[in-house]
Amino acid sequence: MSTAEENTAKSAATGPPQKQDPDEKRVGCAHYKRRAKFVTPCCNKFYMCRYCHDENETHFFNRKTVTELICTECNTRQRVQAECEKCGVRFGKYTCLVCNLFDDEDRSQYHCDGCGICRVGGRTRFFHCEVCNMCLPMQLKYDGHRCVENVSRSNCPVCLEDIHTSRIPCHIPDCGHLLHRTCFEELVIRCVC
């Protein structure tokens, strides 16, 4: 990644992830711990995250379209920002204003400009392959991998769900194509050879 890309990512993702204080009040949903609800522009409803929205609506929600949120501490509706304009609470220990991602759990998050989204696992453990157009484990940079153009932009061949923005880790077979690790493990268990 170039220095310009790193600087952009650093300015987009404010504040390093920190360990959760066990005495701190934990708020959020099953998917994320955060202190803000999104005002979804597609239906003007309030949800803790895009997954909560998508589980309850008949359409999908793109979190990058959010322009407003509601502080869960003081219930103030406001523009998207890292901290509440009224009570000053930080919406997430990890905040990315490019992706509108707020998370109080340390997942070693980082924003990748190449992928266009935040990733988990730590920037030093991954590299962005320009051909595959996704972040891959650093070991594949040294051992080599078979490039497949825009590989993560296609759906998992097993469940037919999105791979690029999925929270499910990927399995990368020798052919270079991707499938969800859970789908791969299920295939191995149910082998019909």
Automatic annotation (TrEMBL):
The keyword Zinc-finger applies. GO terms for molecular function: ubiquitin protein ligase activity; zinc ion binding. Keywords: Metal-binding, Zinc, Zinc-finger. Residues 22-89 form the CHY-type domain. Residues 156-191 form the RING-type domain. Signal peptide: none annotated. Residues 1-24 are annotated as: Disordered. Gene3D superfamilies: Zinc/RING finger domain, C3HC4 (zinc finger). Residues 1-11 have a biased composition (Polar residues). One of its GO terms (biological process) is ubiquitin-dependent protein catabolic process. This is RING finger and CHY zinc finger domain-containing protein 1. It comes from Culex pipiens. The keyword Zinc applies. Residues 91-155 form the CTCHY-type domain. One of its GO terms (cellular component) is nucleus. It comes from the Eukaryota. InterPro entries: Znf_CHY, Znf_CHY_sf, Znf_CTCHY, Znf_CTCHY_sf, Znf_RING, Znf_RING/FYVE/PHD.
